[in-house]
Structure formats: structure tokens, C-alpha cells
Amino acid sequence: MATAKGYAAESADSKLAPISFERREPRPDDVSIEIDYCGVCHTDIHFAQNDWGMTEFPVMPGHEIIGRVTAIGPDVTDYKVGDTVGVGCMVDSCRSCSACESGLEQYCLDGMTGTYNGVDRHDGSITYGGYSDKVVVSERFVVKVPEKLDPAAAAPILCAGITTYSPLRHYGVKAGDKVGVIGMGGLGHMGVKFAKALGAEVTIFTRSEAKVSEAKKQGADHVIISTDDRQMKAAAESFDFMLDTVPVQHDLNPYLNCLKYDGTHILVGLLEPVDPALQAGALVMKRRVLGGSLIGGMPETQEVLDFCAEHGITCDVEMLDIHNINDAYERMKKGDVKYRFVIDMQTLKAA
Amino acid sequence: MATAKGYAAESADSKLAPISFERREPRPDDVSIEIDYCGVCHTDIHFAQNDWGMTEFPVMPGHEIIGRVTAIGPDVTDYKVGDTVGVGCMVDSCRSCSACESGLEQYCLDGMTGTYNGVDRHDGSITYGGYSDKVVVSERFVVKVPEKLDPAAAAPILCAGITTYSPLRHYGVKAGDKVGVIGMGGLGHMGVKFAKALGAEVTIFTRSEAKVSEAKKQGADHVIISTDDRQMKAAAESFDFMLDTVPVQHDLNPYLNCLKYDGTHILVGLLEPVDPALQAGALVMKRRVLGGSLIGGMPETQEVLDFCAEHGITCDVEMLDIHNINDAYERMKKGDVKYRFVIDMQTLKAA
After folding, report:
1. What residues in B contact A278, CB-CB < 8 Å?
2. Segments of A49-133 assigned E as strands
3. Rounded distance, CA A57 to CA A50, Å?
4. Helix, strand, coil distribution of chain B in percent, nearest 5
5. Are A281 and B272 in contact (CB < 8 Å)?
6. Which residues of A touch B283 (CB under 8 A)?
7. Which of A261, A281, A284 sits opposite B99 (nearest CB)?
8. What range(s) does the Enoyl reductase (ER) domain occupy (chains A, B) (predicted)?
């Protein structure tokens, strides 16, 4: 085992603070990684605060990990020492069910193992995430980071990126489609980049006039103020897809009405009951579809990194000293980040 | 113009009663039809009672029409006098939008013209439905009834049939799929027949133990009592599709949980707000889809009749004397029909 450092929360009320702990002994198919960068996702905050009532404390968040390989097990075939690699939201799954065999490990019938707060399938320990100097992960759950990509700005591709890329591909967005992106945070701004790269005409829906210029800067062809009934009515039945990244309850019905017949509204952020109530007639009368999507499988996580390298896409990031992680959480709660904090892990090593 | 007879409601409170009226002068592309049979759909009751607040009185319901061609206009190419033909839920559309050009006239961007209570696009009159001895319809909205089909039992295929057939095809049900059918009325029992004919393994979900033997008689491979939590839990994540024919508010969440990842829940009956609230997490966490579907386009309406002839499928019907139409409505409200009333129009002619 190797002694590691990191930041963890001891309870829902406590702030994140430095701890030392032991990373597990590498197994034959494991890649040992020295972490350089780790993106900060809203899910990290939810787990640290135990918002979903499922946190095992202490919890060490972080599932947008970029680092370099420092050692490989004897069964590792795809990586060598020195490679720049990434680790996203999962570190294991059953590997043998129909989902895993289809490269959709996120839908593993036996449940995927989360990068943090998951239960290790071999030793039953609770997994610790990427707010750390090192990590040990089976090579199946490691991806290569193309040389062309800035590794810090690539970190959020492993969650915010794949979460928006995967549904755009799965639900069939293609050149010429009219795509609406709802929400302009970490996920939304990546959704715009991907939809544009796929050749779509992209409209950002935002509640605030103040965000229009920023939306245009992100590459949106059009901006609709979603609180303006006149603009929303003018957009009726004109979209092929809506990519809905909003993680809190909101009214889906005005957006459904903006879809053409056979249009698709994709949820990637909303996990709560739909309130106000969904108007079923909006689906039936126009054969519209309301679909969901969860991150992406390992082959597609590699694909999105390669796609980003090919199209020059990275996340807009603000680099973070890990000592400021608690302040960063407060700023994220206020939406005060464009668009993702990424921890520079040198700041941990220097501590 | 030709004088016609039929049954109509004068107001939301009145019963259906006989009236005489003038059918419109045939246009060059029109087919004149003597009606032999007309199925009775729940929608007929909703319009007669003005449940949806959109009825123009007097209203003459009926959109599952089977009859024989008595005359054709000079531009008619596909029908000749004597042909047995059908007319379903639509009698017109704009014919030039992308939906119409795709044979999806039910999603016409300018709105389809309903077989009854619709506004005629040429003369602005309100359309009268099939509870009548004759009707005049443009040939684009007429279908051929294959000789192999019993014409009376074929009538409900024009609404109950196409409404269930179309989404099973559109959403991609194929041999070996596990399909659940929710609701065992006019639509549900047709859904079972189609899903079986497509090679699926079919489970009927019913609230009542008393309906199990009837469900098996309809061809279901399995029956699940939806009010039995133990049975519902045992069915978790095991279905590829749910065909939900229930036309009133009901809890979708237990059914969503019965779908595999990538499973599809298809609404064909529900037009109201979803209550209890839809759990968005059930879509996101397993990439499930909630979709709708509305009847079917004209090419597919012909297709379903041909499919029925090929597979020996008809609707289970109870023949009705039109003088008993008001009693039939009362029985339908209690679910007391297996599975569709069909008016024998000889009883109108004999009156």
C-alpha cells in the first residue's frame, strides 16, 4: 500500500480538510496514477453535504481526474509508465452483464462502483476520489488523454463532457439539427461546444438577459430568454432536441412545446420528481420523447476525449489551489464560476 | 349534396338522437362511401359530453368507419365503386408540410382535420363522423380493407388498432423483446395481438386478479397484478417496452422501474398532467425514455390493415344496434365491453 494525501469531509457539517490515508495495494490489472488535476463537480458538493443521504464519511470527492501513470500491474496492456491518463466517474463494474459487455458500464446491472463513496468489489472498502495526490484504478476504467489536449482543461471532460456528449450521440443529433441547451453551467457550456461540433444550430435558453453575451461567446447561434413568454411562444415546435442540464426542479412543459413532432427532450441533470407536472399530451400529440442519460461508458469516454482533441474542444476552467476548496464550493453554490474549477494538485503536494 | 341520416348529440347533456343532414358535394378527389360499420371509441364519449371543452354541437361521433364505395370523383385513382374501404380518425390535412410529406398526417404542422368535430379546410363546415349511413372523404384519407378481414371486426383497427400498432413499430419492438401492455381495453387488447405478432414476449399488467384468465385468453404470455408490490418488484428492470394504454391519470413510476436500461415507456392514452409526479431519476439513471404516439399516418393505417390480414388479427367486437348507442356509452364507462362496440349500420337504415 502507498500512503496518500488528500482532502476529505468528516461529516456533513464539516469543511473539507487534509487527511493522510492508504491507497490500496495494486492488483494485476491496475494502473497507479499520480494525479495532476481534478475537476470539481456539483455532485462533489452534494456528497460532501450528504444531500442525498447516502454519503459514507469520511468522503473524498473528485471524479474528473487527470494524471500520469507511475506503475502498472502485470496484466495491464494498454498503458505504460509516463502516459497521461484520465479517470472519470466509475472505477469498476461487474464487467460481465449485458450493459458492461456493451461498454455501458454506467448502467451495469449489478451497479457501477463510483470513483468515490463507492464500495470496492474486492475488499469492500469505500472508494476515495481524486482530491488526492495518487489513485489506483483498473485499466478498464482508465482513459488515454490525447497529447493535443491541455490536461487541466481536459479534466472536466471526464464528467461534464461525457455527460453531455453521450446523449447528443445516443439520441442522434446530426448536422443541421436545431438543438436547444438549457442551463449554462459546467454541463451546458460543454453541450454547446459538442452540439456545434456535430454541426447543429444551437440555441441557449437562459433566464437572464445578462447572460446573452456570454452565451454568444460560448458559440451559441441564438439565445432565448426562457422567462419571456413571447420568445418562448415564438420558438414553438421549432427544435429537434433539447439538452436539459438544469439540476433542480423546473417546468419542462414550455420546453416540450418548443420541440417539433418527433423531437427529444434529454434530461442529464434532473434527478428529482418533475414539478410542475409533465403534460403527457405534449408527448402524445406530437410523438415527442422525454429521455434521460447518465455520464457515458468507458469506450465512449475515450471517444469523447479523442473527439475533443480532433475538434479543439476543452472545458473553460478556473484553476484552484486545493487549500481554497471550501471557498470554491461556496462560489459554485452561487453559480460563480466559468465554468469549472480544476484543482492543481501541485498545491496539495506543496502543502 | 346527398341527404344522410345519423346519430348526433345536440348538447353535452343530451343523449345521442337521430338527425338528417346534408353530406357535402363530392370534390374531384373524393370517394363517396356507404357506411356498413362504425366502431365506438372512448373519444366519441368525451366529445359527446364535451369533456375536453372543444366540442362544436351538434356532434356526430365515429372514426372507425368501414363501408363500400358508391361513387368516385374524376381525380380518384386508387378506388373504384364497390371497393370495401375504411376511414379512420382524419379526413384531411395540409398535405404539403414535412409531416404530411412523410405520411405522418396526424402531426400535420397546420393541424389534421378530424373525421368529426373538425373544420373542413375548403368550406369551413364542421365534419360529421361515422354514426351515419354515408360519408364523403378525399381518397388520400381512405384505406383499402383487405378481403381476408371481417369488415365489422376490422373497424376498430382504424383507431384502436393503428394507435397501438404505430408506436410498437416506431419505437422498434422486435422479436424476442419483452413488452408490457398496461390496460386491457380496446387499445390494450389490440396491443397484445400486435406485440405477439411482432414476436415479442408479452405481459399484461392489470389491477385485478379477476382479469388474469381473460388476459391469458388474449394471448398474453404472462400477467402481472399491478397492485401487488411483490410482483411489481420482482419485475424490476426486466422489460424492453411498456405500451401504456390507460387514458386516465396513474402512477407511471412503478412501470418505469420495470424497464431495463434503455427501455421505453410509450403513452398512447394519457393526455393529462402526469400525477403522481414523474421521477426524473428513473429516466436519467437508466437512460430510459418516456415517449408518446398519436394514431398513425395514412400509409401506416393501410399497413396495419394489411398486417392484420396477413396475421389473422381483428378486434374482438360486440355488434351494436345504433338505437342502443346511449346504453352502450353507459356500459363503456363501466368497462363493460369486450373489447369494442361496432355499430351495424343496417340498424340505422332499418330505422
Report:
1. 273-274, 277-278
2. 65-72, 84-87, 90-92, 113-114
3. 9
4. 30, 30, 45
5. yes
6. 267, 290-292
7. A261
8. 11-343
B275–A283 C-beta distance less than 8 A: no
Tens of pLDDT along B227-251?
A: 999 999 999 999 999 999 999 999 9
One-letter amino acid of B54: M
pLDDT for A33-59, tens place per residue? 999 999 999 999 999 999 989 999 999
CATH number for the domain running over B2-158+316-349: 3.90.180.10
A53 shares contact with chain B (CB less than 8 Å): no
Per domain, the residue ranges of chain A are: 2-159+316-349, 161-292
Residues of A in contact with B269 (CB under 8 A): 284
- List, for residues A321-332, the tens digit of each pLDDT value: 999 999 999 999
Amino acid at B182: I
Interchain CB contact of A301 with B (< 8 Å)? no
Question: CB within 8 A of B273, min separation 6: which ones?
Answer: A276, A277, A278, A279, A280, B249
Query: Across-strand partners of A319?
Result: A342
Residue B276, preceding peptide bond in cis (omega within 30° of 0): yes
Residue in B closest to A166 by C-alpha: B287
Does ipTM surpass 0.90 in this model?
yes
User: Which residue from B minimizes the CA distance to A170?
Assistant: B287
Would you call B12 an interface residue with chain A, using a CB distance cutoff of 8 Å? no
Give per-residue pLDDT as tens, B141-183. 999 999 999 999 999 999 999 999 999 999 999 999 999 999 9
b/e B288-302 (16+ beta carbons within 10 angstroms → b):
bbbbbbbbbbbebbb
Please name the residue that has the C-alpha cell 369486450.
B338
From A256, A287, A239, A240, select the one nearest B169 (Cα to Cα): A287
Residues of B in contact with A270 (CB under 8 A): 280-281, 284
Mean pLDDT of all residues in B16-44? 97
Judged against a pLDDT cut of 80, whether residue B351 lies above it is answered with no
* Mean pLDDT value across chain A: 96
More confident: A218 or A18: A18
Q: Which CATH architecture has domain A2-159+316-349?
A: Alpha-Beta Complex (3.90)
Burial label, B144 (beta-carbon count in 10 A; 0-12, 13-18, 19+): middle
Q: Does B270 touch chain A (CB under 8 A)?
A: yes
> Does the pLDDT value for residue A143 go beyond 70?
yes
Q: How many other CB atoms are found less than 10 A from the CB of residue A228? A: 12
